[in-house]
Amino acid sequence: MAVFDFFKAREQQVPEQKASATGRVMAYHGAGRVAWSPRDVVSLTRTGFNGNPVGFRAVKMIAEAAEGIGLRPLSPCHVRVEAESDGALSVSWIRRTRIGGDTWEGIEVPLGEESESYVVRVVKGDAVLREVLLGMPNWSYSVAAQAEDAIAGGYEIQVAQVSALYGPGAIAALSMSA
User: Fold this and answer.
1) To which H or E segment does residue 173 belong?
2) Alpha carbons 48 and 36: distance in angstroms, whole number
3) What is the pTM of this model?
4) Residue 128: in which H helix or E strand, if any?
5) Which end of the chain is more exposed for a tag (fewer CB within 10 A), N or C?
């Protein structure tokens, strides 16, 4: 009878409750040691990468290809601002390319796009004060335009290359003070 009582006691126990989404996950590492990790995306991604970096990279490449990240233009580099004698600001930069830019044969990298196009923004906080679409890697921010934008204090000049397939790419920003 004692054996049957043992099974009855088991039947009367409360079933286990499901853990919350932020509960811990148990993983076995190495020599039978137990390691606990949280169930959030960042931790699980890190764990997945540490467990299989080649597989993780393959999945990441597929996800990036689906998003069109490979088509996104790189940010321009060497953004410079020089004050002209009349008070205007001369902004210049050097374009970067995704296609064929590894050679050192030419003075400039190949364009890699249908046309050379840039978007320049003057930004203060979250407000875009001015946005200009250009076909060359330089721009003059005239005194009249500066007065119209009422720039005072700190602002930012942002430059991005534009692709016909992707649109504006990564931004190169230069912080300014008036």
Assistant:
1) strand 167-177
2) 14
3) 0.59
4) strand 127-134
5) N
- Quote the DSSP letter at residue 99: S
pLDDT in tens, 120-176: 999 998 999 999 999 899 999 999 999 999 888 889 999 999 888 778 888 999 998
Eight-state DSSP code of residue 71: G
Cα 29 from Cα 51, distance rounded (Å):
10
What is the torsional sign of CA 24, 28, 34, 37? negative
Pair 173, 121: CB distance under 8 Å: no
Q: Which amino acid is at 13?
A: Q
Non-local (6+) Cβ contacts of 156 within 8 A are 122, 123, 124, 173, 174, 175, 176
Pairing of strands 89-94, 77-83: antiparallel
Edge-to-edge strand list for the sheet holding 138-141: 77-83, 89-94, 138-141
Residue 162 token pair: 């534009």
